[in-house]
Write a structure and sequence with these properties.
There is one protein chain. The protein has 13 helices and 13 strands. The protein has a domain of about 200 residues: 3-Layer(aba) Sandwich (Rossmann fold), CATH 3.40.50.1100. The chain is globular, with a radius of gyration of 20 Å. The strands form three sheets. The chain has a six-stranded mixed β-sheet with strand order 4-5-13-10-11-12, sandwiched between helices.
Amino acid sequence: MATPSFDTGSALTHLECSACGRKQDADRLQNLCPDCGKVLLARYDLGRAGRTLSREAVAARPRGMWRWRELLPVRDARHVVSLGEGDSPLLPAPRLGALAGLKRLLLKDEGSNPTGSFKARGISAAVSRARELGVKDVALPTAGNAGGALAAYAARAGLRAHVYMPVDAPDLNRKESGLYGAEVVLVRGLISDCGAWIRKRAAQEGWFDLSTLKEPYRAEGKKTMGLELVEQLGWEVPDVVVYPTGGGTGLVGIWKALEELEQLGWIGSRRPRMIAVQTEGCAPIVRAFEKGLDHAPAVENARTKISGLRVPAAVADSIMLGLIRRSGGTALTVSDDEALEGMREIASSEGVFAAPEGGAVWAGIKKLVDRKAIDPDERVVLMNTGTGLKYGELVSFEFPVVDRVGS
């Protein structure tokens, strides 16, 4: 059944460059700022949004990301492409927290989203808006999960999807992207090499490039994680949010959500400490943070088994470094082995099969507690960005085998 056509009430007004501040037309297809090449952010008339958006209205609407429609970019509901994304659970994690002496650890489990990761949120918003603006072909480079999400949402929207991913991306990510009908091309290289192919092919073929933060609307979908988080905490902000950081859309989106909620008058000015976790073999944001830089130079020969964190350079590096510092947060690395052990501890303590990126976050939290950078009484949110079910090749066991009884 077709989605009915009606005005969503989106209060989207324009796009604004995160660097030079120049305004751009939100009703034209846009990638990076045409004046300076930096990230464009969606801006809203929050006074107008507040005339129909209230805490009570949000709570009464059908569950899912699109109940926040005034703060999302699609104007006509018939263009919304949804598979039921959003409203992921915020789970108390007392057994896991006890391993590090934390009394109020919470786990936001994004693995419950369609296609098994938080990428569903951003891709839902970006594909919906692209369709509204007349796009027929969408494309992106991916370490894995974004490719599966794009393929699924493009199929749902009736668009053609083009996905370039490293040849050693997780096997299930490759298979699901193909199964959803996307053109999948494997590249001998990193996600940055995949991005170079996308730029080349998009220019040749007229595809619309949905690369991380190289268009304005994936961040809007990811923003809903922050909106939900505050709602789930009774309209309070946590003390600490710990996030696995590759391209960084989630960090940027959550911070943007908090800014908009303050402007709506729903929360105050207090912010959680925002903490970025990367792996030792690919840590551009951590290295830049430690050196006091405002820009993160690309990592050469990036190496990590944690595919979602193998991002040698991020277009939103300056935005991430700025918000981490403004929040009083930090950035740190963990080893691949620590991340994989983190997966095991989350699963065996709380029954959540977290992605290795979530395992990295837990490993980072333990280090921060040891350094006394997190207090045992603080309310800490572990952001698990996806399901570990897609990463079977990273998990191995030897089980005893017995014969049938009586043999």
